[in-house]
Design brief:
Layout: E1 3-12, E2 23-30, E3 33-34, E4 38-40, E5 53-61, E6 66-74, H1 103-109, E7 115-126, E8 132-144, E9 149-153
Antiparallel strand pairs: 1-5, 1-7, 2-3, 2-4, 2-6, 6-9, 7-8
């Protein structure tokens, strides 16, 4: 199988309390499979702050044409095993843990562990020679709460 490098550029929203200190996980989904679930963290850097843009790398097998990207949060430092990103159906939004109507109330009652993703861009390269073979943009403008997964379709 062909090996690929996926460069994932993540933009946290500029909205109030959009940043998080929770652990952010990502998985790419394509027409021929999906990548491993990857923990996005740059050591010594405070990732996912309000308005922050940062790039991360996923090296995996070729998953075909990119169709979706998934993000999840877990409590900071709590990833003592495999994280599973499972969503019911194909939608832009959170899974059942937080209803969108309750997001503002939830934020006001908690110390803002939630994260608001503005968008993500993915550039896919052949690992052997780093030739770019595709680009995809995933517009989210969605809140993610710990224990929830969002799946975003390609624009």
């Amino acid at each position: 199988m062909t090996k690929m490098t996926y460069r994932v550029y993540v933009k946290t929203s500029d909205d109030s309390k959009a940043g998080t200190n929770e652990d952010v996980w990502c998985q790419l989904i394509g027409t021929q499979g999906e990548t491993a679930v990857c923990h996005f963290d740059i050591g010594g850097y405070n990732d996912f702050e309000k308005g922050d843009s940062q790039g991360y790398v996923i090296m995996d097998d070729d998953i075909g044409e990119l169709t979706h990207i998934q993000f999840a949060l877990t409590a900071e430092g709590s990833y003592a095993g495999e994280v599973s990103l499972t969503v019911a159906g194909d939608f832009k939004g959170a899974s059942a843990g937080v209803e969108f109507g309750n997001v503002e109330r939830w934020k006001s009652q908690h110390h803002s562990p939630m994260w608001k993703l503005d968008h993500a861009r993915v550039h896919a390269y052949l690992l052997a020679d780093l030739v770019e073979v595709q680009r995809a943009v995933f517009t989210a403008d969605r809140w993610v709460a710990p224990g929830n997964v969002i799946r975003i379709s390609k624009d």
